[in-house]
Amino acid sequence: MQKPHPRVRLFAFPSMDRALNSDSFDFREVAMRPPIHIRRAMPGDRSAVTQLFRKSYPQLLPDEYSAPTLRAVLPHITTAQPGLLACGTYYLAQDDQGAVIGAGGWTDVSPARGVSREGEGHIRHVATHPSHLRRGIARDLIEHSLSAARDFGLSRMHCMSTLTARPFYEEMGFEAVGEIELTLAPGVHFPAVQMISEI
Questions:
Q1: pLDDT tens, position by position, 63-117
Q2: What is the dihedral of CA 149, 38, 139, 151, to 10 degrees?
Q3: Domains in the chain, please, with CATH?
Q4: Which end of the chain, N or C, is less packed with Cβ atoms under 10 Å?
Q5: DSSP β-ladder status, 120-128 and 156-162
């Protein structure tokens, strides 16, 4: 089967078009992938998103974080934030049965300082269900977010990435500015990477 011409956009998400033109792309694999639907999150999604976080982070973070760090940190990062769910720029990825298998979005307000700067945004609380990794879910959520942010008039996106997700964000075009330590609560510190991308 011939691959489509590389200049022809067949899908809404650029990641799929890049995949189609990759030498390693397997059409049989894509044919077996269930469809993924992205929609805006709503306040009523809090339970489903919290369940997603509680399945995702405990399984995906241990390679880069010690057990004591995770015991302290996980209670603070595995609960959905009502403000994000209601902001209109936080999105959910669902499978064809309606199950939430990914989440992520952006705001124009910094999660660390609570302030905004003209033209700048912040990637927020991205997670993928561990049973659905390597299906492009996080990539599609980020691309959806960046597209919406550009339409909003933003030109730069910040991200406070986990150590685990740093390679993913670098692949998405983000550049590491430096390692930081987030204070989630008194005495609770979470090592992360400050990243930035011109969008």
A1: 999 999 999 999 999 999 999 999 999 999 999 999 999 999 999 999 987 778 9
A2: -20
A3: 14-19+34-157 (3.40.630.30)
A4: N
A5: parallel
